[in-house]
Amino acid sequence: MALSRAASSPSRAALLKPLAAAISSSLFRRPISTDTTPITVETSVPFTAHRCEAPSRTVETTAEELVGFFRTMALMRRAEIAADSLYKAKLIRGFCHLYDGQEAVAIGMEAAITKKDCIITAYRDHCIYLGRGGTLLEVFAELMGRQAGCSKGKGGSMHFYKKDAGFYGGHGIVGAQIPLGIGLAFAQKYKKDESVSFALYGDGAANQGQLFEALNMAALWDLPAILVCENNHYGMGTAEWRAAKSPAYYKRGDYVPGLKVDGMDALAVKQACKFAKEHALKNGPIILEMDTYRYHGHSMSDPGSTYRTRDEISGVRQERDPIERIRKLVLSLDLATEKELKDIEKEVRKEVDDAIAQAKESPMPDPSELFTNVYVKGYGVESFGADRKEVRAVLP
Amino acid sequence: MERDPLVCVMGEDVGHYGGSYKVTKGLATKYGDLRVLDTPIAENSFTGMGIGAAMTGLRPIVEGMNMGFLLLAYNQISNNCGMLHYTSGGQFKIPIVIRGPGGVGRQLGAEHSQRLESYFQSIPGIQMVACSTPYNAKGLMKAAIRSDNPVILFEHVLLYNLKERIPDEEYVLSLEEAEMVRPGEHVTILTYSRMRYHVMQAAKTLVNKGYDPEVIDIRSLKPFDLYTIGNSVKKTHRVLIVEECMRTGGIGASLTAAINENFHDYLDAPIVCLSSQDVPTPYAGTLEEWTVVQPGQIVTAVEQLCK
Hints:
The complex is a heterodimer of chains A (396) and B (307).
Chain A (H helix, E strand, L loop, with lengths): L1 H5 L3 H18 L10 E5 L5 E3 L7 E5 H26 L14 H10 L5 E3 L5 H6 L4 H8 L33 H14 L6 E6 L6 H12 L4 E7 L2 E2 L2 E2 H4 L14 E5 L3 H18 L2 E6 L18 H11 L1 H11 L5 H24 L19 E4 L6 E5 L1
Parallel strand pairs in A: 4-5, 5-6, 6-10, 9-10
Antiparallel strand pairs in A: 1-3, 2-9, 7-8, 11-12
Helix pairs in contact in A: 3-4, 3-12, 3-13, 4-10, 6-13, 7-8
Chain B lengths: L6 E5 L15 H5 L4 E3 L4 H13 L3 E5 L10 H9 L1 H4 L9 E6 L14 H4 L6 E4 L3 H13 L4 E6 L22 E4 L4 E5 L3 H14 L4 E5 L2 E3 L3 H11 L2 E8 L4 H13 L8 E5 L8 H7 L3 H11 L2
GO biological process, one term (chain A): pyruvate decarboxylation to acetyl-CoA
GO molecular function, one term (chain A): pyruvate dehydrogenase (acetyl-transferring) activity
Enzyme class (chain A): oxidoreductase
């Protein structure tokens, strides 16, 4: 145990590794997921700041957290790939926007905040929902339109919500969630909650007028809002340099401070979000630009290769994949063995398969559900015929 | 606002200015700048902000300086305000009130004289009410604030100067109920907002001519109070709708369809709908007068209907 505490940087750990491994395997089973002694890691890319001081590159983390990152990201990756197959099997219909490649943003953000803080995002919301505490069953059931889904099957891929965990969705119209996010921050300031709201949007939405209107209001009233641009460099099929005169999204807030973060590095995301939360509670809004990438196309109907080369995709996968990074970090810090990580992946795969099987058994919504939840109960609407006995339609 | 600390107001010039029609006068000094929020001119965003705040449990009242400006916020009202309760499977309720003046004023020009209740009527999940007197304005406003549904409250530019004696004690009206203004036997006249006054003026002439019109102020534009309306139709068998909304796809058009569908057997004559003309409101005073329904036209229509 003393040896792993001393391993505070990857290079030192490499020297100590053979010794540590020899001792550990002979003496006792190293518990991989419960060690909470702090480990400091440096992010691979520095932060670039606009109108604020960039946070330090050294991130504090623990073995438990890193292995947890690996597990949850593997779960998210597996879930998205499973959704891909389900879509091709026509069990998921309509729109399905997959998040694989961007998992580090969801994970890093969760690690820096509490469930009292709110997150609102656009339609690429499956993994953020999982990060906020949603179960795999709810995800797959909702995608397949079943009753067990998080929105009872009535929302679909783009409308995941989890009120008790502060996840406000799940929105289809590009950019419309940004004013909603500002509204969440307004409510937090009004109720003096000491919590913040993260409004996520993409590089495509960064050109919407609503964003700048919302930024103006947030800055005017010092709302605790953090606007996070998940820049995966393509707005559906349009590359960022073809859509934006200034693709430096973290600078476009002008009077609002911004920070550019390597979105494929979960620890960098965690550090940035922690910094942003402190900033927002004291000084008002801040923009975080997450430099990230999506492997799939914009949605399932987009092959993703007409506007970018396969080499580019595989290049990013080889050099910047968020899960591989954490895997390398965990292995180099000797927090788990190769086999243990592979076992985690197998476990995760089984979890996903079980959830899908369970979701498939969930029934479709009852026809009466067509009319439920249009209005809140108690202010119901009854449309009568000529006398009260002849009820034509009841909207509960 | 005194009763519930979660109620807040937001809109352009509602705070220090007191509201462009003085509706929120004095509130900012009493409750502070955060509860009576002066917003920049960004309808889409501050309506969205109100909806986001409502999702967390706040009860905002969003004022559109003129209902026509709310067209800029239509995306937020339709997609987020109306639909979130449904698409989240009931997790979120949006107890927001969106209110503002609309209708044809005194030569305000086409863009500031819009009658667009009908633009919002198809949005699932919202309730629409139109007030017409100080008494029902207060009652409906209270009901709208207390309602857990999103409510759009349509006021009228020309009705702000009305004076009326209203009860001192607290009263809340029902959002889904229509108001019987004048009971009668010969014909049912359905109206709302400012047209109620034109109808009452015409009613005086009609009474002198020997007719007995029943005048109902429908108040609830979505959903319609088919119970009150139905009982009236059952009694008189003739319906005249007088409204300020546009002819094509207006509230009157929907109401005609609803009455025909439900009460066809009770009608002795086809429903007549008098609405404003399908034109942008002209500036010239005489032309503006002809855009909306005048009492003379109402009298003629009733006479035709009752032949």
